[in-house]
Amino acid sequence: MVDKSWSCDGLTVAVVGNNGRMGRAPDRIDVAIVGAGFAGMYMLHKTRSAGFSAHVFERGGGVGGTWYWNRYPGARCDVPSLEYSYQFSEELQQEWEWSEKYATQPEILRYAEHVADRFDLRRDISFDTTVTSLTWQGESWHVATTASTSGVDGDAATTVTTARFVVLATGCLSAANVPRFTDDRLFAGRTYHTGNWPHEGVDFTGQRVAVIGTGSSGIQSVPVIASQAAHLTVLQRTPAYSVPARNQPLSPDYVASIKANYGEFRRKNSLTRAALGGDTPTGPHGACEVSDDERRAALEARWQKGGLLFLGAFNDALTNPESNRLIADFVRDKIRQTVRDPEIARRLSPDSVIGCKRLCVDTDYYETFNRSNVSLIDLRETPIERFTRRGIIVGDATELEFDAIVFATGFDAMTGAISNIDIRGRDNLRLRDVWSEGPLNYLGLAVHGFPNLFMITGPGSPSVLTNMIVSIQHHVEWITDCLAHLRRESSSTIEADPSAQAEWVQHVNTIAGMTLYTSCSSWYLGANMYGKPRVFMPLPGFPAYVQRCTDVAQHHYQGFHVR
Ligand code: FAD
Ligand code: N01
After folding, report:
1. Does residue 77 line the site of ligand 1, with CB under 6 A?
2. In whole angstroms, what is the distance from residue 182 CA to residue 221 CA?
3. Cβ pair 29, 141 in contact under 8 A
4. Is residue 349 one of the residues assigned to a domain?
5. Closest Cα to atom 37, ligand 2: which residue?
6. Atom of ligand 2 nearest to the CA of 410
7. Which residue of 221, 293, 413, 489 pairs with 523 in a disulfide if CB–CB is 3.0 to 4.6 A?
8. Do residues 410 and 213 touch, judged by C-beta distance below 8 A?
9. How many domains does one find in the chain?
């Protein structure tokens, strides 16, 4: 049973920090939560509401996680705002007004801050505090932290908190990938990573700017940077598929119609594979099962509507290679129709499986290459040789001169932020060692050898293949129910069973193997990071996963050892 002397007893002390009120960690708590993004914030609210003492440690200076760090020009969500938001509080979802179909980063950050205020979260969050190690001490975890400023860890003295449970809400896309290039330190201009953007913003007016990387972050930022810069050079290693967002202000009538029945809207969304777009179900046919005209019409309708649901026009986009090719052909045609220079259109056209890497959603991305101040370098034809004081030398010894270089090079996804913490479980087992061949896990929630440690949207769960706020809520609620169960049963530890874990990893591999997801070098597979084991990390299919988690809980936490 959770020791009563540890229950919420007012140990937290409110102090004033640069983000307003924030809490100082007590010496002992029931639940230590790492990260104050949407996952950590809801985890705090939920555990506190269930009567546990809980405290959040956050590396950054405020709440919001992704939306605190990713302040690059053009950053916004690509799941509609009315879906990309919490649903645990009817009052919250009724009172918050989203202004656009896809909210901008500042608007989403304001929402996160509103949630923090509304549920009085800050008093139990230590900002500017990085968790450096987690050590299992037989009955509880020692949580070691150090002070950090603007995400840079200081060498201040380590402080330790003792917690019965630890929840890693560290984010799937929070550990920036900054690739090294020969002589990159020589460059005399400014460099930026989209995932760690200066809070004061960057004015590129009149500058010669390079953007390296053409994933979602590059594709969102390129049109905005191009509109400011004297010249923008996009350095593309692999072209991405992108569909138009068709972003627009939300009409009050539409918002009212959703809010009139928000619960049902949310319920329908959560029954879909990706927990989004319940109003636009996946088409009933395969792309090869219909005539050419019908296929083009269905794809055109989704293209005009805009957004990620483009891939749902047919039910076999990610299982049938021929269907996938037909859908990809449609997008390649669109690129050719949009980009005036046929050579640039060719370079921008992907030849891979569409949807294998995460589909991008853009506003005027392809159109931007018609501007006279934008050029495109294909790094497959002319790779980066080295950096110089003035810029970058590509393939044929051409020196490109820049005032600023933007790394839109992504993240050490899904495992990076977790592996950055020195986590030692039973018998001093290191999580980094356990994961050396890939992230072993049970249900994407726990790892054998690491009792009382939970992950939110961890590898092995649907996480990044879904509307992540829905997946986050599901995990937070499952974990809180589990903690309440342990308290009721007077149990002190829970740990994944090794054979249940092995079976789960096999299951995830089997499901992924039935799709086309494993056919390209994506970050889902860890292929963007040098030396990272190639294992498909997320699990396709949200509803079946939710059912499995429910079954596990109902069968006395089957696959876990509860003591
Ligand atoms: P995060 O928001 O990443 O928060 C994790 C927090 O943990 C961070 O603040 C980090 O500083 C902190 N942290 C990590 N390690 C430590 C440590 N050792 N000590 C202390 N603190 C630590 N998903 C969607 O579903 N739809 C979208 O439209 C969408 N858009 C996105 C746009 C961008 C630019 C990016 C990068 C991601 C997007 N995502 C989207 C995914 C997004 O990450 C999730 O939707 C969601 O915000 C994740 O919340 P989280 O709390 O799990 O993680
Ligand atoms: O990162 P990415 P991201 N030399 O990994 C290139 C979410 N998100 O930040 O494909 C040269 O997708 C790399 O090239 P390649 C969303 O889930 C959502 O853009 O590896 N280039 C690629 O082009 C997304 O999927 C939104 O060959 C190098 C790019 O950098 C995830 O976050 C917005 C390189 C990285 O693309 C990550 O997106 C933003 C090198 N050494 C993010 N290393 C929304 O719209 C990497 N690249 C909601």
Report:
1. yes
2. 25
3. no
4. no
5. 410
6. 1
7. 413
8. yes
9. 2
